[in-house]
Fold these 2 entries.
Entry 1:
Amino acid sequence: MPSSHDQHTPAFAPGTPRQVAVVGAGMVGLATAWFLQEAGVQVTVYERDSVGAGASWGNAGWLTPALTAPLPEPAVLRYGLRAVASPRSPVYLPLRADRTLLRFLTGFVAHSTPRRWRAGMAAYVPLNERALEAFDTLAAGGVLAQTHAARPFLACFARERQAAPLLAELEAVRDAGQDVAFHPVTGWRARAVEPALTDRVGAAVQIAGQRYVHPPEYVRALGQGVRARGGEVIEGTGVADLEHGGNGVTVVTTTAERHVHDAVVLATGAELGRLAGRFGVRQPVQAGRGYSFSVPTEHMPRGPLYFPAQRVACTPLNGRLRVAGMMEFRRPGDPLDPRRIAAIVDAVRPFLTGVDLDDRRNEWVGSRPCTPDGLPLVGATASPRVFVAGGHGMWGIALGPITGQLLAQTVLKGEAPPELAPFDPLR
Ligand SMILES: Cc1cc2nc3c(=O)[nH]c(=O)nc-3n(C[C@H](O)[C@H](O)[C@H](O)COP(=O)(O)OP(=O)(O)OC[C@H]3O[C@@H](n4cnc5c(N)ncnc54)[C@H](O)[C@@H]3O)c2cc1C
């Protein structure tokens, strides 16, 4: 396989970074590293654990631009407030809140208006429109992991009227100018297409043109892709601090090693605030923890199944069904709470048949990096040599590659493309 170094001649303007460090080997950090390599930049990725150890591992793997929208909106707020503090509800808020959580919640409430949602959605559209194309660029450039067409992608409901909020949201996405194709189907039709559904599914909405990936395989392949092109991916090495100097940025590792780079991209997921705060990034990044596990099934669904009322996502992955859900606002390092797994199981059990929800493997908890306005943080900080890429909340897999592509341009040109303006980390 030819490396991109064979195909691209680096064209460095004086002062353009040649040696860039990326902190965090999740989807966003690895995609940024890969697209920097496209322009001939030498990259070093520092990962305190292993490739994909964060949220990029156990997620649902959906590449669903039709659903990729800001999280704060009036319906989510109403729902969240009702569900507060119940360990068995799909949204869980502990009664003891810390400072980041309080700032996050105050901002989230302030942004949960139709007007703010529309403004946020307008910001997402240019990214959503190119999100899948960015995966195709990675594939064409030699990343050895597939995306799968979601044929079909079905959102399932107990009753027809429950589909109304999703249909309204899809209409709103369309009103924002995004091309979205969807249509309601009867429960009978949904069950005919996906025999894993029970007759408790009374209605569904089919969304066209979506895809999905096997998240662990994908991030692993992306990490290999970065290495194959001459990048260093250093696992087991956390970054404790960054020191800004005249000739570059010094990365100080947790083992007190010091390495100077021309520029640094912080892609540390739910922990973005810790290192980025010193460079003027004031937006809190709160862990919205989600859970997943995999189960065997007699009739493997042909595509992802979504249960919006239960907030549960199911994805066929290598012979097992990954079941994911829950939004738990706690610290990223807190232990897995088995009550949340039980809540997900109880929520989907009535809707699935031939699925052994008690034979669970790979029980997992991970942290979505959530911002109060529901928009990611992508771009330069108060330091022209320090950049951030993260805060994608529910959608860092779908938007990781396009984020990496646009941020690489920002790092190289010293100027953000217009699509990134709403995601300015200093907002
Ligand atoms: C249950 C669930 C389902 C989801 N489903 C989907 C979905 O279907 N589609 C979708 O698009 N998104 C989905 N998401 C969201 C998605 O997983 C995240 O938005 C995305 O993985 C974030 O990627 P990231 O690279 O920013 O962060 P992460 O994947 O968390 O990566 C950050 C990395 O930084 C490392 N790190 C942190 N601090 C340091 C440090 N100081 N030094 C060195 N390394 C450090 C961590 O170890 C980690 O590997 C889901 C999330 C959950 C929890």
Note: Residues 17 and 383 are 14 Å apart (CA to CA).
Entry 2:
Amino acid sequence: MRTRDGCSHTTRKGNKIVKASVTKGLGQGFVVEEVELADPVGREVRIEVRAAGLCHSDLTIATVAGQDFPVVLGHEVAGVVTAVGPEARQVKIGDHVVAGLIRACGDCANCLAARSYICLHPERTQRAADEPSRITWQGRPVALGLGGLAGFAQEALIHENQLAVIPEAMPWAPAALLGCGVITGAGAVLNSADVQAGQSVVIMGAGGVGMNAVSGARLAGAESVIVIDVEDVKLERAADFGATHVLNSRTTDPVAEVRKITGHGADHVFDCVGLRHVTRQGLEMLAKGGGLYLIGVGGLDAGIDVQTIAVLTRSQRVQGVDMGSSHLKRDIPMYASLYLQGRMNLDDLVSQQISLGEINEGYESLKDGNTLRVVVTDFS
Ligand SMILES: [Zn+2]
Ligand SMILES: [Zn+2]
């Protein structure tokens, strides 16, 4: 069944016809098509998408990685609940929600220990291989992008464990960013590193995740928040998020400068770049007892050689951090509330708002160092 007017219709099976941006094959970009969205079963929830952020990892899937096609991507999603499955109990119709990449079963030992970011059974939030897929296009099952969220669409079907309820006062575009870049950057500082007031923090890489790490450091009360990048245009905006110092590592020696600013090296270094020489510098600028957190992956050979004797005698640690060690249902409403109180800058993360049909152009503009995030907010 096809529609012309942009409204969604229901098929005989009860599935709903909605517009979605479909990636049909490797490197084939994003094309708006009408797809069928299944009715929610179990604890699935259908949401009307109001904002969906463009994230580099979706573009990576669309252009390089091994991926099933066709696929609907989009994993930074905010919207309104329009239907709930018969077993859903955490959200209700009309709730404003943000979806997150963390797929948590809610019942395993890690989930019960508030470590849902390392859930042992993330697959329980998805449909099994022998069940009908959530989305079909021209009778074919459609793969779901990261987290199974498939947010580049008028409506999405998502397990309730991946949804956090936010205040209705929260605007949609910044809300969509809460589920990925915000919890990754700010969560690394507040959860993984547990930065304390008065400590020194270095953030390597002044992109979206880096700016959210800066916000986290400000919320934690860090005394110095030093941002390092190779592009002045990116460094200039860091002060708007709470940086106290910025360093261009092309024109200065970042290790020497950090030691000069802090006196004894940095208590916490967050590597959002993930290139070997950058990670090495991060380790070299650590204070005794300091921690280096690996957040970004800049290439396939990203990594670091650690000299045991050097880190042992200085009691330092190197830690991998995924999704900011976040707990969606606790952290996303907290960041929304801090934003509404004027204590967290999310507005400057949103560089541009586009329509569902402009995702290809949106990714083009993300190549510009000035653009932090592009968000789809027009789904007509
Ligand atoms: Zn993302
Ligand atoms: Zn679990």
Note: The chain has a mean pLDDT of 94.
